[in-house]
Design brief:
CATH topology of the largest domain: Nuclear Transport Factor 2, Chain: A
Number of domains: 2
Oligomer: single chain
Strand content: 25-35%
Radius of gyration: 20 Å
Number of strands: 8
Distance between the termini: 50 Å
């Protein structure tokens, strides 16, 4: 490719490169090395007309995938598992684990819950740089609590948002508590201690169109 002065190289990486998963450390380490190599190689051969890219596929629903998500949910004592947000702010899909007559794929959870559409929308937009769509999720007098501080109203929420780094979310549980919904996540991003597991989003008040009260707690 270098001799021809043109070419494309595509490496297939994985989210495991940045989010360690139990029993998959060697795989994650290999993918982390591949991503590092891909970036380095891209810098070295760009001047020769060769492009190097690394792609990170999203979660794929399969018999293995369902079993993996069920295991994550079981470890978190959660009622449902969901796939992660992939690189670049792509949309996560939050849905219950489906069951069928195949007992090997049946969840042992006694209850299963789907996220309300407005909550699904929240996690679709939270990793995105399109801030206006994100702010449109909140009612004019909405309240957000984060790290013990409360932010009431859109302007206050805007100010809070500018101080919060964009992160990726791995949803590990959705738990209805009365009329409230608690979503448990692992967050990954450019901040000390990343990835951080067990962050809980308490959606205390919401309707079909807006989030009214959201409390983010560890």
């Amino acid at each position: 490719m270098v001799e021809r002065g043109t070419g494309n190289v595509v490496h297939v990486s994985s989210r495991s490169r940045s989010v360690p998963n139990p029993n998959r450390v060697p795989y994650g380490a290999a993918k982390a090395a591949l991503s590092h190599y891909s970036k380095g190689l891209a810098n070295e051969v760009a001047s020769f007309g060769v492009r190097v890219n690394s792609v990170t596929p999203g979660f794929t629903e399969s018999s293995w995938g369902c079993s993996f998500v069920q295991a994550l949910a079981a470890r978190a004592s959660a009622s449902v598992g969901a796939e992660h947000v992939v690189d670049g702010g792509s949309k996560p899909t939050v849905r219950p684990i489906e069951t069928n007559s195949d007992t090997s794929r049946r969840t042992d959870m006694t209850t299963a819950a789907t996220a309300h559409p407005i909550i699904q929308r929240y996690f679709e937009l939270a990793p995105s740089r399109d801030a206006e769509e994100y702010f449109a999720l909140f009612a004019d007098d909405a309240l957000v609590e984060d790290e013990g501080k409360e932010y009431r109203g859109i302007e206050s929420i805007r100010a809070w948002r500018t101080e919060v780094p964009l992160v990726e979310y791995t949803i590990t549980g959705i738990e209805p508590v009365g009329e409230k919904v608690v979503v448990t996540c692992t967050v990954t991003g450019d901040f000390p201690g990343s990835p951080f597991a067990g962050l809980k989003f308490h959606f205390e008040q919401f309707d079909a169109d807006h989030v009214k009260v959201l409390r983010i707690r560890t």
